[in-house]
Amino acid sequence: MYINSKHRIFGLDIIRALAILLVLCSHSTLLLFPNQNNVYLTVTQFFGTVGVDLFFVLSGYLIGGILLKQINEGKVTVKDFLYFWVRRWFRTLPNYFLILILNILLFYFLHEKIIENIFYFFAFLQNFSSPHPGFFTEAWSLSIEEYAYIVGPLALLILMTFFKNCSKKTLYIVMSLVIIIIITFLRINYHTNHDIISHHDWSKHIRKVVIYRIDSIYYGFLAAFLAQVFHSAWNNYKKWFLVLGILLFIGLHSCVFLFNMQPENSQLFFNVFYLPLLSISLLLFFPFFSSWKTGGPFKNTITKISVLSYALYLINYSIVLLTIQNFISVEGTPLVIKFLILLLYWFLSFGLSYLLFKYFERPMTNLRDSSFFK
Fold this sequence. Notes:
By secondary structure, this protein is mainly α. It has 15 helices and no strands. The model has no long low-confidence stretch (mean pLDDT 94). InterPro entries: Acyl_transf_3_dom, Acyltransferase_3.
């Protein structure tokens, strides 16, 4: 698999590869121990959720950087923003719609049912303001990312239209902060009017709903601004930021563990503060990793995993894991059989993702660079 690494930042490839591997490890526990619950499984599954948050803040950091680059180059017309959206959509939508259609066909083949309100998935409305359905469950995070890509740049374009004399970078910050504040108030409103009865309930109604989560992307926007405007401090204090991020991450979850904090007994903390603090702790790692330009002996492997991460995320659960579970029961099977099932899951996930990337995703992303779209 040929990869043009000229413009890639190895440290960010590490973050992306780590994020998808955490997700795969988490899903592996669901495959092998679907009805079991212990501290080891809980920790592994927790880091899987952290992997998704890594994707959120990384997406915000990269997309925010692209918007800032457009601002610096004076590319702030409606045409420029349309070109920005076309490039993003050619990167994300073809894979999504292909896997969505495959999921619909696979679900019908296995269960002879058609999902109710399936058309919501084609507009990313399935979890816009309510819990995500039980079908194609990994799509919840894609809805959050897609709306974040639309809302922020559109708000920025509107601000620049009405405040032509203001600094474009100032308006970029205003846009990011206003969206973060609005989403925070929406979570406060939910907290005021609803009771959370379990961690699953919190995850379903808060963590996986668009209008309560897109602020995670915009924390990444703020980090992109800081990285550009305060470039010297971003690089000079990168190790200190890394240490601070580790301390915040460990401290945050140590409090959760030591004080037995759960969404049902610490609702204000989880509904309003936990997810932003998690995003900030992860972004504090970025000064260190965003300056990591070269790799060691595992560079090619890490870069390939990073490149396949989007395809892996789409394929590994609904397409591979649930299909395996439909035909193979792991309950009461010997450990060696479970190991073989695990190998099958990882082999199919990477193999199908490679095929998706090579024969569909990469041709689509190459098409966006054609002269027609420029």
